[in-house]
Amino acid sequence: MKFWKRAVLAGAALLLASSASFAQDVKIGFVVKQPEEPWFQDEWKFAQEAAKEKGFTLVEIGAEDGEKVQSAIDNLGAQGAQGFIICTPDVKLGPGIVAKAAANDLKLMTVDDRLVDNGGQPIEDVPHMGISATKIGEAVGQAIVDEIKKRNWNMAEVGAIKVSYDQLPTAVDRVTGATSVIEKAGFPAANIFNAPQAKTDTEAALNAATTVVNAHPEIKHWIAVGLNDEAVLGAVRATEGVGIPAENVIGVGIGGAESAINEFKKPSPTGFFGTVIISPKRHGYETALNMYEWIANDKEPEKLILTSGQLATRGDYEAVRKELGIQ
Ligand code: GLA
């Protein structure tokens, strides 16, 4: 072999070796606000798939409050990570998170819940992947309207449990999307009862919804909407708690992870009629991959990506999940 040929080959081998060892040195944090929630477990699972594929290390961290977020970021900095993806426990932590990331020289992307500045406006500089909240909320509303009609209920006599969490913009957009469609179809606004939850889990939703159902013993038929499956499941549990039969309840959630699937697997149907399945694969795998590309190849992610959803019920959830590639 001629000398120059050998030199080129050696150079190429060196390049390959160094890029492989670089991948091994890439460390990315994936910080979530509610590690016990199946949605976030799925996000982690799919983010790990990206890590395996590209050969970087993914550090999973649960951070349920501001203090834990701060120490998570410092920790990642100390471990030599180059960036992280976060679903924050409180979007108002936005400016603090941006500053901490910069102080630790970490690239920052958000998932699910978009950071806001001190004036409550989204921080548009930080790349974000979230769901198309209003549209998905509208799909929830439409599913409920269709089912009310199918069951021949008189809308004037139906009550709506609106499980709300107003400090989170995506939650507001989701429930408003749902109630706007329901109202447009003739549902009386006066029959929509607000059930503000203190936290975004099933227990908090159950507590909030129980107050509503107890206050309206005259109502026989209920519908329920909320930010996610956990919120709607809490409302459904509240109706069960006061003895309302499952066939008198139509709850439609958002998510489609294990909480919803377990409900569909129960031997007989509950008031949890359906869920709009969103994609933890896109939110986990894609954000992790985008962060990797940013670190390794200087390829900046798009500033805003909004993902879609698809309605699934007890009868077709397996097929819908398959179609979305998320089983
Ligand atoms: C919020 C909710 C989660 C999930 C994600 C999806 O973070 O709290 O349950 O719905 O949005 O983006």
From TrEMBL:
<dbReference type="InterPro" id="IPR028082">
    <property type="entry name" value="Peripla_BP_I"/>
</dbReference>
<dbReference type="InterPro" id="IPR026266">
    <property type="entry name" value="AraF"/>
</dbReference>
<comment type="similarity">
    <text>Belongs to the bacterial solute-binding protein 2 family.</text>
</comment>
<dbReference type="Pfam" id="PF00532">
    <property type="entry name" value="Peripla_BP_1"/>
</dbReference>
<keyword id="KW-0813">Transport</keyword>
<dbReference type="InterPro" id="IPR001761">
    <property type="entry name" value="Peripla_BP/Lac1_sug-bd_dom"/>
</dbReference>
<keyword id="KW-0574">Periplasm</keyword>
<keyword id="KW-0732">Signal</keyword>
<feature type="domain" description="Periplasmic binding protein/LacI sugar binding">
    <location>
        <begin position="27"/>
        <end position="306"/>
    </location>
</feature>
<feature type="signal peptide">
    <location>
        <begin position="1"/>
        <end position="23"/>
    </location>
</feature>
<dbReference type="InterPro" id="IPR050555">
    <property type="entry name" value="Bact_Solute-Bind_Prot2"/>
</dbReference>
<keyword id="KW-0762">Sugar transport</keyword>
<protein>
    <recommendedName>
        <fullName>L-arabinose-binding periplasmic protein</fullName>
    </recommendedName>
</protein>
